[in-house]
Design goal:
100 residues; mainly alpha
Length: 100
């Protein structure tokens, strides 16, 4: 657990996300909570992480996602040295098709 972000307010945020039950509920909640660019940035990082985890190369990732090489490097660092959150989610979703 990253002690830099842990506090009651963040706990409340995460409990709120866990209370969502459908993709539509997620759309409604995140549209209220975040700006469109914030949502797009998070989804881009998640897609970059997925592509890196499936051994895609930077040039393919840039072409497909429009992410900068700096963003790809930061995501790659999280995959290699982070808290394994991406790996956890990808393992849980592996039986589902990745949305385009």
């Amino acid at each position: 657990m990253n002690s830099k972000i842990k506090d009651e307010s963040v706990d409340f945020l995460f409990r709120s996300i866990l209370a969502l039950e459908t993709v539509e509920e997620c759309y409604n909640f995140f549209e209220d909570l975040c700006t469109v660019p914030e949502i797009k940035a998070m989804s881009q990082r998640l897609n970059v992480a997925y592509m890196l985890s499936t051994k895609r190369v930077y040039s393919e990732i840039v072409a497909e996602t429009g992410a900068s090489t700096a963003t790809i490097s930061r995501v790659n660092r999280s995959l290699n040295y982070g808290c394994d959150g991406y790996e956890l989610v990808f393992n849980r979703l592996k039986n589902e098709d990745k949305p385009q």
